[in-house]
Amino acid sequence: MSTGAVEPGRLVMVDIPGKRLGADDARFLREQRIRAVCLFRKNLGSEDEIRRLTADLRAVMGPQALIAIDQEGGSVVRATSLPQAPGAMALGAVDDAALCEQVGAGVARGLRHLGINWNFAPVLDVNNNPANPVIAERSFGADPHRVARLAGAWMRGSLGQGVACCVKHFPGHGDTHVDSHHALPTVDKSLAELEALELIPFRALKDAAPALMTAHIVYPQLDPEHPATLSRRVLTGLLREAIGYRGVVISDALMMKAVHDRYGHAR
User: Fold this and answer.
1) Which residues lie below 8 Å from residue 250, measured CB to CB, with a gap of 6+?
2) What pLDDT does residue 1 have?
3) Nearest CA to 171 among 134, 222, 207?
């Protein structure tokens, strides 16, 4: 599909500074025709405040507005006014797909009530490195087939309630020693090694996931120069062409130091 005629603002997700939509921010969103906003803890006040904020965003951005959040459950939740959902590791330990679907649906109902329609979850990273500082309990486990099965069920629950999902972090953040929020990790694995583990859940859910988030990680045997987020070899060659993924691809946050300190926002 060609995006030549699409206005740039329709392809950009931004964040906003506070719990209310100020006049200057509203003007910027309207003039730039921004379609998507990601909400963080700084934006979330009381339930009524959140609902007012999302209504104001939708009024400015239009009925196709995408209002997103990271509400995985466990340690990664932004909307703390909602019931606390168990993390993926706990669900993986129970190993019950029906329960995962119910949890995904429950999280989605809460988000939909707040006016949020896109959740950056579930995590497809395989928890195969006990020294990993950032994935750990966010993963459904060390078995990639279990990860695919349980994450797929969680996603079905969310989609059934009308909240889009976003699997992450392609091509896999499970085997890193560095948190990409703070520095640029490297995973020195061959494509064959990735296919045998990290890529299994992404291949399994490629036709079910409406969106996929990239990892700020360098895989030198795939692309020695660029992290996956900025790599044509990884995102076009591997994800689009070899795996055949046709959904939306979105970067992880560009203010994370793994990208920001080397490339900056604009580049």
Assistant:
1) 13, 166, 211, 212, 213, 214
2) 45
3) 222
| Active-site annotation holds for 207 | no
Tokens 């003039």, residue located? 31
Mean pLDDT of 110-128: 96
How do residues 155-192 score in pLDDT, each as one tens digit? 999 999 999 999 999 998 765 555 555 457 788 899 99
Is 181 among the catalytic positions? yes
How far is the C-alpha of 173 from the C-alpha of 48, rounded, in Å?
Answer: 36
How confident is the model over 85-98, as a mean pLDDT?
A: 97
Q: Confidence band (pLDDT; 50, 70, 90) for 136?
A: confident
Q: Looking at per-residue confidence, does 239 or 178 come out higher? A: 239
Angstrom distance (rounded) from CA 13 to CA 166: 14
pLDDT of amino acid 23: 97
Q: 15, 95, 181, 226: which one is catalytic? A: 181
Choice among 25, 70, 125, 252 that is catalytic = 252
- Joined tokens for residue 109: 């109902």
| Mean pLDDT, rounded, for 64-71 | 97
Using left for φ > 0, alpha for ψ between -120 and 50, and beta otherwise, residue 225 falls in: alpha
